[in-house]
Specification:
Largest sheet: none
Strand content: under 5%
Number of domains: 1
Low-confidence stretches: none
Order of helices and strands: HHHH
Shape: globular
Distance between the termini: 5 Å
Helix content: over 70%
Structural class: mainly alpha
Length: 73
């Protein structure tokens, strides 16, 4: 199992789902994915929670990029 996948699993254990979307975007996404994921993380941190709308966008990015992580492990 590669280090990236291990980091993903560790983040999941700590409920760091937004951080994992940033991790996926940085490693497998395009420039838009990176900008959006980092923006979601910034807003999540500022608000102290994630809104429903942001969680939907986060889920879309995750669902699209997660298979690439699985292929890489």
């Amino acid at each position: 199992m590669n280090n990236l996948y291990k980091k993903y699993l560790k983040n999941e254990d700590c409920n760091l789902h937004t951080e994992n979307v940033v991790l996926l975007a940085e490693n497998f996404g395009d420039s838009d994915d990176k900008i959006i994921a980092k923006g979601i993380l910034r807003l999540h941190e500022e608000l102290g929670h994630i809104t429903y709308e942001l969680s939907q966008v986060r889920r879309e990015i995750h669902n699209r990029l997660f298979p690439k992580l699985q292929e890489a492990k």
